[in-house]
Amino acid sequence: MQKMLAGALYRADDPEISAAHRKACIWLERYNSMLAASIAERHAALAELLGEVGAGVNIRPPFHCDYGFNIRIGAGAFLNFNCVILDVVAVSIGQMTQIGPAVQILAADHPRDPAQRRAMLESGRPVSIGANCWIGAGALILPGVTIGDDCIIGAGSVVTRDVAAGATVASNPARRLR
User: Fold this and answer.
1) Residue 64 annotated as catalytic
2) Structure confidence by residue, pLDDT tens digits, 104-130
3) Is the pLDDT of residue 178 over 90?
4) What is the pLDDT of residue 148?
5) How far, rounded to the nearest angstrom, does the alpha carbon of residue 136 sit from its chain's CA centroid?
6) Which of 48, 61, 45, 57 is nearest to 92 (CA)?
7) What family is this protein classified in (predicted)?
8) Nearest to 27 by CA among 64, 58, 72
9) Cβ(151)–Cβ(166) under 8 Å?
């Protein structure tokens, strides 16, 4: 677990890591049945698993994550249906950020070396999304990316590099628009 949290190579089948993932899966099964619940009821459930949940956070089920405890979401943030966060390391989402349906935020990574992949090793690189951003539907945010405050990420974009505050990016790979 310590290796995973540090972003070093680790095996996901480690008993401590597997137990944490199972706990999240049990929680996700319950949370994803709460679509008809009030925002307040869902917020209370989010606070049970996530590392930090600001006031007024709204995540519409279904939602998927690896562990939950590495996720920090600022006040007033909104995540639409089918958001996936692979949180093997820290993932932070700033206050008032709006995230469209089917967005994937991927902090999990895999070695480029084939021998390490055969050994079932993986790692992670933190992802940070600033305040007041708008992430369009189906966007992919890759490991290690930082997105500054007030950014717009176009629908379907693949964000492979950091995005400066106030920038609008789109495409695959995401590029700054004028």
Assistant:
1) no
2) 999 999 999 999 999 999 999 999 999
3) no
4) 98
5) 14
6) 57
7) Belongs to the transferase hexapeptide repeat family.
8) 64
9) yes
Catalytic hit among 21, 43, 64, 110: 110
> Where does residue 104 rank: exposed (0-12), middle (13-18), buried (19+ CB within 10 A)?
middle
What is the dihedral sign for C-alpha 135, 101, 50, 105? negative
CA dist., res. 177 & res. 124, Å (int): 29
For each of the domains in the chain, give its residue range(s) and CATH number, in order of start. 2-176 (2.160.10.10)
**Token output for 112:** 């480029």
Instruction: Identify each DSSP E strand in 32-150 by its residue range.
Output: 52-53, 58-59, 63-65, 71-73, 78-79, 83-86, 91-93, 98-99, 104-106, 108-109, 121-124, 127-129, 134-135, 140-141, 146-147
Phi, psi of 64 (to 5 degrees): -140, 140
Residue 149 CA to residue 95 CA, distance in Å, equals 10
